[in-house]
Amino acid sequence: MELQKTNDSRARVGDRFKPFVSQHSIWQNPLLKACERNELTLADYGYVISQHFYYSRGFTRLIAALMVNCDDDKFRAELSHNLWEEAGEEDSEERHSNLLRKMLNNVFGISNPDETQFKDHTVNYFNECLQFLKHSNSITCAAFLGWGTEGVVADIYNYLFSGLTRLGVAEEELLYLSLHMECDDEHAEVIEDIALSQCGQNLDGHSQEIKAAIDMALTLRDKYFTALYQDLTSAKLNGLIGNITNKKTYRDADDIQSYASELKADDGAKLYSNVDAETGINFNVSRFNIGCEVMDPRLLEIPQGCRNERHKHAHESMFYILSGTGRVYQGEQSITVKAGDLVYVPRWIEHYSENTGEETLSVLAITDFGLTKNFPQNTDYSYRSKVTSIA
Ligand SMILES: [Fe+2]
Ligand SMILES: [Fe+2]
């Protein structure tokens, strides 16, 4: 049986809360921003989505909580239609939670997501949603689940879907996400209509109550996503912290050859370079892969008459001038340098170097990029213009 769909005038009434949703701070969430800036790895997405599985697995309980609070049999019928879709319709193996199990297995190799070590904030997020819905009246309950939850799924899943496809994951592997990007707006409207109908002719009188419920839903999710983002960052630091605190060297004595270099350009892996005849920018940066953990030594080479571009980054650097003469600019100041000089470049200061002599200016730049790279938004690429190659 085809249930009656939301009528258009109702949907437009519901739209009046959309600006409130779109202005919420959740859209500045660091996890979403990291997706947008392509800063997450496939493993990062695997972590985030395997934690989200806890919510997905329990989701029908949230609809059920709303059903309990809804005394209109027509709306309960429409909610049961949502539940029917969630349940995979005729085939319970195709229920949405199972689609996510398949996606976790196929994309991330997580074969048994039910055995994930769910974080406290993952469990708490779901429980706080469930508790709110169990103990609210039907207006706030529907506002929380309609505008505040189902209504934002398409946008939030789009961050994950776009990020994963940019990493090369095939769209057909992401059915769980694309399906919800298509169907959840309709689900949201059914739920929003419950709130609107309960308000009757007094929508203005209930407006603050509805906004408070929407804000609660979005704020809980915002906090949860921030906690997941912090997990990603701290997971990357845990190995480093362990190496520092366990008081044992991890170095293999046989590896000493690989920890040495003659400081020739060819010894370093190419990191980036840029040439722009108009501005005189011409430089090359190579990395010495000699096994440092936090220190990341690089060789900066600038030909005669050229400079590198003004830029800034999270890592601090110690410049040791190997050969040539030039000027190192930091902020509004600059100093002359020659072979044998040492210059410290603090984090985040805008700086560049210029070759003022007659031979190549060669600089050994010892940075702490091995530390700062663990904070993805702080990688230097975003603050460097016109980079022509990044290895
Ligand atoms: Fe679903
Ligand atoms: Fe720099």
From TrEMBL:
It comes from the Bacteria. GO terms for molecular function: oxidoreductase activity. Keywords: Oxidoreductase. The keyword Ion transport does not apply. Pfam families: Cupin_2, Haem_oxygenas_2. Residues 300-366 form the Cupin type-2 domain. This is Iron-containing redox enzyme family protein.
